[in-house]
Each structure stands twice: as structure tokens, then as C-alpha cells.
Amino acid sequence: MTNSIKLSLTIILAFLNAIPAQAQLAIAKPTNSVQPSTGNASQQPKNRLIFQTPPPPPPPNTGAPGQRRGGGSRGCLNETTQNVQLESKLLIALVPEYSSLRVVSGLTTQQRPTFWFYVPYTSDSSYAKLVIEDEKDQTFYKTSLAQRPGIIGVTLPPTSSPLEIGKQYRWYFNIYCKQNNKFLTSVEGNVQLLALKPNVQTQLSKATPKQQVALYAVNGIWYDALTTLANLRRTFRQDTNLASDWASLLESVDLQNLVTEPILDCCKSEAQTATTQANITTANFPQERRVPRISDVGN
After folding, report:
1. Verdict on whether the full-model pTM lies above 0.90
2. Closest by Cα among 105, 123, 115, 1 to 57
3. Helices assigned H by DSSP within the chain
4. Which sequence spans correspond to the domains of the chain?
5. Is 184 left (phi over 0), alpha (psi -120 to 50) or beta?
6. For residue 58, what pLDDT is reported?
7. Beta carbons of 295 and 284 less than 8 angstroms apart
């Protein structure tokens, strides 16, 4: 009997020793084990906001290419100190530039869009005029400037004529001295009103403002992407994600030098007059303009 028991124990021990170690561990492993974390979600790489530049538009029929950067200027004469202040930075339009064609142009879905500029001049000595031109008419809007240099948005007023789909519009943004209405510098480019595709319109209607920025950008609608994001940044100034999106959007059109410039709460535009090609004169218009076809009134 004793020998039978010893024989049975020997057989059991031999069987257990034959089970692979991996199998024994698998049996002992709890079924509710949690996989280790790969890191904080905030540390994961964030998708950069990239503007998808649409195919270049046809060259403008104005006889002159666009100009995203204004020429150098010595500023306005200060009557108090009687000195001339040098401007270290240039007037810049925040618009894509097709360097091969020298076309400065962007799309919008708004009938009265907002145009954005970096302006190194201030309201104590200077003012601006935004000119909108089509093949028949020209309308210009006297625009106040901010009290310090920075990025400003100029929106066409509610009383202005709405842009029409399919038409190419030319705009000019001119800076003048208050003291003597002397022309300082100018930038110019094109804007075109776009009809949204139904699927994009549906996506935009369901999206948050931040999501709308990405939708506008991926569909090549520059003015709306920039305006929506600029308004978000002015509302949520401490939001680092919005700041990152702003940097990505400007860098995608080679405007990285403006990333750190302040977005100012400015400026109002006031319609002054509309002219037709038949009665446009240059009697009082500064000779510095490359396309001096606008009657300069309402100073």
C-alpha cells in the first residue's frame, strides 16, 4: 500500500514538472489586468492647421500684379517735435501670394468680408482707405487705425454693396498722413466670393467655430478661416491651442513673421463714395499710387 502511494506521488510530481513555465504563468495571470499607459494625451502630437492653397486664380486684368507688402516709408511729420519718425516695419496684407504669378488673392463665402492687415502706423498721425473695385465701379472706405502697431481687421459695412459670385474684385489698402493727406504706402490684391458645396455647408453648420476654421482652411477659403480664427483669438487670448493654430495658419502662407504681432480690436470703415469708370478722376489723388484711378474725396 505504501509503495502504491509513493508511486502515485512520483507520477503527479513528474507531470507538474512537465508543464511549461509560460503556461503556469498564464493560468496565474489575472483576467482584468490593465495595459500600461503610453503617456498623457496632452503630450501626443497635435495636428497642425494647414491652409490648402487652391489653384492659382487667373492673373488680374488691372494691368498690375498684386502687392502683399507695402513700400518703405519715413512716416508722417510730427508737428510737435518737428522730426520724421522712421518705420522699421512694413505694411503687410494677410493674404496668400502666388509668387510665380505675383498674384495676391483669396476666397471668401461672405458677401461683406473682413480684410486683415499688419499696420505699423498709428491713429495719432495716420489713417487708411480701403478701396473695392470691380470692372464697373470703385467704392472706398475711410478707415481709422489703432493707437499702436498691430494686426487689424477691416470689414465692409452693412451699407456696402455685397460681393457677387463669379466676379473678381480688386482691393487696395492705402495709408495717408493726417496732417497733410500725404500718401505713404499701399498694398493690393484680389478677393472672390465662392459658392459653398452643399456637403461643406452642412459640415460648417454643425461645426464649432474652431472646427469651422479647419474646414475653411482645408477647403482653401482664406478670408473666412483667418477671420474666424482671429476673432477666436481676440476672445480667448490665453488659449495656447488657438495660438498654435494661428501660427500654423500664417506659416502655411509664408507670413510667419507676423505670428507674434498683436491682433487689435480695430477698426471701423465708413463708405465715402462710389464712382464709375466713366467719371473716375485723378485730380486730387497722390502720384505714389500705381493705379491712380480713384477720386480722392472725403478727407
Report:
1. no
2. 105
3. 2-18, 21-28, 198-206, 209-218, 222-235, 240-251
4. 77-276
5. alpha
6. 64
7. yes
